[in-house]
Structure formats: structure tokens, C-alpha cells
Amino acid sequence: MRYPILLLFILSLAQVTAQEAFRLPAVNVLHDSAVVCGRLTLFPIKRVTAAEAAPDSTGSSRFLLLREGLKTGSVAIKERGPFMLDNIGQVLVENNSNKPLLIRSGDILLGGRQDRVFARDTLLEPGTQVHTVPVFCIEEGRWSKREKPFAYGGQVATGLQQLIDSTQNQTLIWNAIRQLLQERNQRGSTSYAALTHKGKTADTLRACLAELQQQLIGKDSNYCGILAVANGKVLGADLLLSESLFYQTLPLLLEKYLAEAWLGSTAGKEDYRNATAYAAEMLSPASQQRFLAKRGKRLYFKGQLIQITGF
To answer: Rounded to whole angstroms, how far apart are CA atoms 112 and 89?
Structure first.
């Protein structure tokens, strides 16, 4: 009996160590190292020392992201069938790579019979198995007779992502997109993609994404997260298990925060005291669990915590 007890002790110790890697004082928000583009301000989060980082016991320090998988053809995504009511809420995904496929809630699929967004964070092991993965429609007015190839379309804004994470109601998603389209004078379209993939807004978002990515990578190689502020409010924060995983997922994080900065309310003035209070509540050992239960989420792989997200 001693061996099972010892094993449970080791496993619980590893979980505590991993959890502590996402809390103060193991990490520090660098309020004096902000990077800015237009309406969006990002505060980097850094591990205090390399020794503070939790060991990666998942067996893989790198995942295949959906963007890369679709671009290289190592991930195949298809419709379940031709009937809208039966098949709108799911797609078929096959991971033919040699890496675990990481799909994020908010990942956009353009094409198919209509544009979709993935409904939850999903990790798929490599292999020939075809997985049925839940999605929401983000293009209310189209259901094509012919299925177009799916292409990656970036990340939805944080406000819509939070709605996706908290609801199973397609109508609420459509209502939110209708309101955004109306506010941005996009009455000729029913697709969320019209908000971020066309015109001056798309050009601005692409330029800011490149600029912020360059600023963050050029400043320090030990960042493991960011806290985003825009338009008078904190948009959220993301903290990854390792620096390499952070830089791999950085484009996705920037896409969702940039989209929210441009599509969200423009009222108010930025107050960085809000960012300080938000970071303290999210990262403090005394309040983190309660904070994430109400305003965030955790992502696990093979039983190990690899990311926390605050809304």
C-alpha cells in the first residue's frame, strides 16, 4: 500500500508546483514595460527566475496550432453533412500530424458551408481518428449547397470569446454578432469576418499585430504571458506554463485582444490602476481560484495545467 500512497503524494505535489507557477511571486507583471499600438496596451508577465518555471511533464513542449495545421494540410476539417439543422453545431477534425493539436475556443473557421468558431478549448492527439468537435455559426445568412475548403480565420474578440465560453446558445452568439455588425455599419453582411477581415480595420489590426509581436519578442525572451488594457478597461490576461508555449500562441492572443480593442466600447480613459488591481486578484494565491471560477478558465493537458485565462 505504501507505493500507491507515495504515487498519490508525488502527483499532488506536482499539481501544487504547477499551480504555483501561475501565481505570485513566481511571476511578475511588468507594469513599467508596457507595449502599445493604437488603442491596445499590453503589460508583459515574466517568470521571476528560470528556476521558478514548473517542469513540463506533459511529454510535449510544443503543440500544433490550428493555423499551422490547416496551412500545412496536416489537419483536415470537414462538414458532418449537408443539412443545416443537423450539422451546424459540429465539424469533423482529423489530426494527421505527429503533435497534439491545440484548438482554442474562439478559433475561426472560414469556408465550409458557412463560417464557424470553435466552441471550446480542445486538444486532439495525433492519429487517424476523426473527431467530432463542437462549433458555433458566425455567419447567419449563408448555408452553401457546396462545401468550400475550411481556412483559418484568426481569433474572435475577447468579448465574444467569453460569451462562447459561457453559453451553449447559438442564438446569443448570432445576436452579439448582429449588434457588432450594426454598430460598425456592416448591414450588408451577416458574417463576423466582415468586422475584422475587410477594409481599414483589417489593415490596422494586421499592422498592430506585427508591431506588437516584434516589440514583445525583441524586449525579452522570458515572457510567459500578457495583460491587456484598452478603451478604459482591462480586457483580460493569459499566462502560459512555459516561455516557448507563450511565444507559440502569442499571435492568437494578440488577435483576440486587438479585435476587442477596436470592436469594443471606445468610452472612457485608460486607468492603469485597474490593471494593477486585476493582476493582483488574478495572480494572488489567496484569490486566484475564486477569480478564475468567476472570470476565467484553465487549460490542462495530460493532467497538467498549461494555461490560465482571465476575462
So the answer is: 13
